[in-house]
Design goal:
441 residues, five-stranded mixed sheet, Cytochrome Bc1 Complex, Chain A, domain 1, 14 strands, disordered N terminus, globular
Length: 441
Amino acid sequence: MRLCLGMPLLLLPLACTPLSNGEESGPATKTTVPEWISLENGLTVLIRPVEDAKEIALVVLYKIGGDHDPKGHSGMAHMIEHIAVTAAAGTGQARTAEEFFGRYRSGCNAQTGDRYTVVATVFPKADLKDELREAAARMGDLRLTSADLDRERPRVLAEIANMFGRIPSLSVLNHARELIRPTPQGGRKGGLPEHIAAITREEIQLRYERYYKPRNAILVLAGGIDAATARAAVVESFAKLPPGQEIPPPSEPDTPKFGSLQELAAESPQAQAEACLAYRAPDPASDLYAPFLVLASRLWAGSSKLESEPGRAPIYFPLLDDPAILGVTTRRNRGETSRQTLDRLEAFMAETVEPKLGGNEGASAQQAFGFFLGTTRLPDPLLVTNLYGVAFSLARREQLGIDPARLNRALSTVTDQELRRAAKEFFAPGRHAEAWIKTKN
């Protein structure tokens, strides 16, 4: 899927400080600095009013994902993500995924990453208190039954079948990803089918009750809200929830299989041949993160050379959803062999990362990634159209420890020497893995 009564505010010890996020006030546009709050039970809260917004995005991010799955239980976090939005909570009833998506016509999402799980909804601002109460009920009183597991297990299995086989453009990327960032402990992104088939209701219930709790969560509200009113509503719904147990450290990915190739057969006779190169990306705390972003910005800017049809995105670098890798994909041209297609991708990478640093490339990267990383000032009228993106970006920046102001300084002072280091470390020949979807055509 990509998708309690509280104490008065003034009696609770809250830490409220503005975030350093690169947003500034200007004479022509109005921007707002988000407010940061920490409840006694450990819940981190970010509140970002957006002027003239008629709706609100609510994101709950748990700092637990696939890397935390126990050995032999890959897909546990993925299964819990499904259960978290469909099982009964509080006084409510269980619901199907279709009912969940149907309720939130302006948008909703549920997804699992390597080290996070997100549940998000977008709703009219008049519904704020009701939505917070429901989110709190799902954090504090989720009532899982065997019927919930029976309903969601086939959906999880269908999703991973799409990820690794049925949809070639996803399959080639995910197989290459598994080579360059192997899932810890012999698992697989989203879960191995045999592991998912063996997960029990009792295992899910225990894990949810321990870890999917306030001390391990970030809650973000963005949209048509008054900060003081939103703060009081969050406290009312979440302050009395028990904090939960600290999440055990995640397992580290297995060793990258640089230079390896995985060749797969397309499941559909209508499928077209697909090729992918996957590269490791640096952690945001790395001193090479800023020069890597400059190179990634170049790749995005030049990706039209690889587009085989309108709407395709040859460069995969969702720097908050899946920040550990960068993938480059294309379809086979008429008459090409698989090796020729892969060589064409390698040639594109080499010619794109090779040039010396241009005079304005740091600023270009600031603009290219500004919405996600907060490195550009965006006026509220632009943010109204993607409130989920605003809330999700704030949640992930908080989790990853990304300071937009510090990142801006790094981008504005990137040197050619740093760019060359990043190119050698991450994009040198042999520093990638390859996957190829072959067809009968």
